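Example: LysR family transcriptional regulator.
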Amino acid sequence: MDVVGACKAFVAVSGYGSFTGGAAAARIPQSVASRRVAALERHLGARLFDRSSRTVVLTPFGREMLPSARRLVELADAMEDDAERARSRPFRMAVPSVCGPRPLARLVSDARRHDLNLDPRPAGPDERAELARTLEVRAALVAVPATEGTWRVPLGLAGRTDPDTPAIHLDTLRASRVDRNARPRRVWIQPEDDVPHIRDRLTRLRDAVALRPGQVTVADSLVTATAEVLGSADLLLCSPDQAGELGLHWRPIGGVELARGYAVTAGQRADAQRVRGLPAELVGRCLGGASWE
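Written out as structure tokens, the predicted fold is:
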């Protein structure tokens, strides 16, 4: 039985002295108001109204129960107000700085339909982890090895020209023996991928194919790295979606499979669960072509 709904009908009918007026005030049909009051009377074990005349009059039992019913209705209304404020309170979350404005806006809009008012804060990998650790955000999408993450974004190499090959092998970037003075082609790592499980694997591959140390370089920013690629034959380590946004031609890396991994971390378990409670595809779309488990 819906005790709160029955008490609302009871309070409304008592205030108007009729089921017609009380039902209108409670915004329910008269028949529903009658059924709810009758159910409450059965639940409490005594009649609340004397229905012997055209108007309904409280019985002595009804007068005794009315204050409690009013308190219950007021408490229920207050709880609904508190719930509305809680749902609308901004939920600050650190997200990768590579998330574009439009995907972020879509994530915020979609999250609202799931009663989560996201306030995204774009940041780099180290900063996101620190913001979560110091509780400056309620949750963060942190960088983890792809095998440990909820979301996975494939990485490859992109340049301004189409390589016309199914994959790009790093050994093709070795400096020419004919012109040793020519600047060798470089692979630029953007800040989002300057994490051990990505950077170190690419560095080991660089050494394995005998490239120069400077041929795999971490850039200060994505803008800096992209500018270098657009002005030369250099390559950018990025996702397919990023390459498309930047107007670059993307291919996977031959001999190694690299991917970004993302997981949710939060100071409170309930906050992490709120993010995990969103459909995984909403976050995955924001991360740019991510798959998820």
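The mean pLDDT is 92.
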